[in-house]
From TrEMBL:
Role, per record: Part of the phosphoribosylformylglycinamidine synthase complex involved in the purines biosynthetic pathway. Catalyzes the ATP-dependent conversion of formylglycinamide ribonucleotide (FGAR) and glutamine to yield formylglycinamidine ribonucleotide (FGAM) and glutamate. The FGAM synthase complex is composed of three subunits. PurQ produces an ammonia molecule by converting glutamine to glutamate. PurL transfers the ammonia molecule to FGAR to form FGAM in an ATP-dependent manner.
Primary gene name: purQ
Subunit structure of this chain's protein: Part of the FGAM synthase complex composed of 1 PurL, 1 PurQ and 2 PurS subunits.
GO molecular function: ATP binding; glutaminase activity; phosphoribosylformylglycinamidine synthase activity
GO biological process terms on file: 'de novo' IMP biosynthetic process
Compartments in which it is found: Cytoplasm
CDD domains xrefs: GATase1_FGAR_AT
NCBIfam families assigned to the protein according to its UniProt record, in alphabetical order: FGAM_synth_I, PRK03619.1
Protein name from the UniProt record: Phosphoribosylformylglycinamidine synthase subunit PurQ
Major place of residence: cytoplasm
Reaction catalyzed: L-glutamine + H2O = L-glutamate + NH4(+); N(2)-formyl-N(1)-(5-phospho-beta-D-ribosyl)glycinamide + L-glutamine + ATP + H2O = 2-formamido-N(1)-(5-O-phospho-beta-D-ribosyl)acetamidine + L-glutamate + ADP + phosphate + H(+)
Associated pathway: Purine metabolism; IMP biosynthesis via de novo pathway; 5-amino-1-(5-phospho-D-ribosyl)imidazole from N(2)-formyl-N(1)-(5-phospho-D-ribosyl)glycinamide: step 1/2
Enzyme Commission number: 6.3.5.3, 3.5.1.2
GO cellular component: cytoplasm
Length: 222
């Protein structure tokens, strides 16, 4: 399996994601610069955290126009698995690959802490039996407040597209939402950083089963 980790100007969690995938989970992971126009040969794609383009305008608003995003949309539309972490989640929402938007945290404070997440029974890959009913994953964001209109929220809940909820909401997200998937299930977005919870010296190792679940999804992708 080959995993592409996209790099935008301002990405700063790209090497963390590379380490988690390549050194901890032992998959063939490579950094892919945002000016590439093809994702041919890759089985899964990671959009890492950071501050793409300095978060000018809105988080992810400029990155969505990078050349690689056209290839990413084609990849996702063909059923390819994609995970966006923190800024990557914001980019996926701006690009229309996930519903909703991420806005400034309630209180306008940057939140950096280890967050307890409630794992929802979303599908065969992301559920409490596989990941544990509660996991601990670090967050580090100023714009993690998930927003969506009432109709969209109802649809998310009805389709079981919510993957994770905050046990104690740190940012004001609607329904305590910390992570979601697309209706088809192959595009995932989450504000917490699973790549920062993969080794004993980190706040937890709960990011390992999360990333493994994503790779299991990739293994059966068309």
């Amino acid at each position: 399996m080959r995993v592409a980790i996209l790099q935008f100007p301002g990405s700063n969690c790209d090497t963390d994601a590379l380490h988690a995938m390549r050194d901890v989970l032992e998959v063939d992971a490579q950094l892919v610069w945002h000016k590439e126009d093809s994702l041919s040969g890759y089985d899964a794609v990671v959009l890492p955290g950071g501050f793409s383009y300095g978060d000018y305008l809105r988080c992810g608003a400029i990155a969505r126009f990078s050349p690689v995003m056209a290839a990413l949309k084609d990849f996702a539309e063909a059923g390819g698995p994609v995970i966006g972490i923190c800024n990557g989640f914001q980019i996926l929402c701006e690009a229309g690959l996930l519903p909703g938007a991420l806005v400034r945290n309630t209180g306008l404070e940057f939140r950096c802490l280890t967050s307890e997440l409630v794992v929802e029974a979303s599908n065969e890959y992301f559920n409490p039996e596989k990941l544990g009913s509660r996991i601990h994953i670090p967050i580090a964001h100023g714009e993690g407040n998930y927003r969506i209109d009432a109709e969209g929220l109802e649809k998310l809940e009805a389709n079981k597209q919510v993957l994770f909820r905050y046990a104690e909401n740190p940012n004001g997200s609607l329904n305590d939402i910390a992570g979601i998937r697309s209706e088809r299930g192959n595009v995932i977005g989450m504000m917490p950083h699973p790549e920062r919870a993969v080794e004993a010296f980190m706040p937890s190792c709960d990011g390992v089963p999360v990333l493994r679940a994503f790779l299991e999804l990739a293994a059966v992708a068309p």
